[in-house]
Amino acid sequence: MTFELFYWPGLQGRGEFVRLAFEATGTPFVEIVQGDAPGQGMDGMLHTMDDAACADPPFAPPFLRVGDELIGQTANILAYLGPVLGLVGESPRTRRFVNQLQLTLADLVAEVHDGHHPIASRLYYSNQRTEARKRTADLIDYRLPKFFDYFERVLANNPHRSGWLSEQAMSYADLSLFQVIAGLNYAFPRAMAGFAKVYPRCQTVHDGVARQPRIAAYLKSPRRVAFNTTGIFRYYKELDRESPF
Asked: In this protein, which residues make up the domain named GST C-terminal (predicted)?
């Protein structure tokens, strides 16, 4: 089985949540935009995405091609990959819950993005800087605590007491929680300074994922695209501030 991942070049973005699932399990995959064979590169991605004859077209990257099927939306991709890669439990209830967690993280990621682009994605940050300060202040003071209170409670209530979000093993939702915390550490170092003390269980998930041998090797490798100011998690000094953490 060949997994082909389509995402924008030079960005972690939402594609990184899918990459982490492959990297954590040592699963080979092809990054289409990095190739130069026919059907690869940016032209290959855009052609595939905009193909008028496609029966199941994705709206936007990331999307995954498996055989003749295209699977779009990060949470949907991970819901498919979870059972295939062994990153989710066996029961239908567990799989629904882990998907629920992933969708909640997707909501958080969208709010982080809208912190620096509160008016429109097509406008530059410099065109909405004043509004971004207001939106990010609310994100840091109210929305981040609300989300992490929830994830801390999920971890505390896991009956297996495993330290992971669901059952006894790391799931794709744990990988995604790691990525969100890592991104927030980059974007808001002042706001996140006290995070580990206020949310020790979430911090333990972050640290536990980072210690996984394959993930640790990936984070040190050139395959891991660095955080930058064109991705979802962006550092702007004027947006960072002390937080309730």
From this structure: 91-245
pLDDT of residue 1: 80
Buried b (16+ CB within 10 A) or exposed e, 3-36: bbbbbbeebbbbbbbbbbbbbbbebebebbbeee
- Note the helical H segments in the chain: 15-25, 41-50, 74-85, 92-116, 129-138, 144-157, 172-187, 195-198, 200-211, 213-220
Last residue of a domain, one of 85, 100, 131: 85
Contact 142, 115 (CB under 8 A): no
Angle at 67 between CA 85 and CA 217, to 5 degrees: 35
Q: Residue 230: pLDDT band by 50, 70, 90 thresholds?
A: very high
Q: Which structural domain range is residue 8 located in? A: 3-85
In this structure, the answer to whether residues 78 and 130 fall within a common structural domain is no
Residue 188 sits in a domain whose CATH number is 1.20.1050.10
Average pLDDT value for the chain:
96
CATH code of the domain containing 42: 3.40.30.10
User: pLDDT tens, 44-62?
Assistant: 999 998 999 998 999 999 9
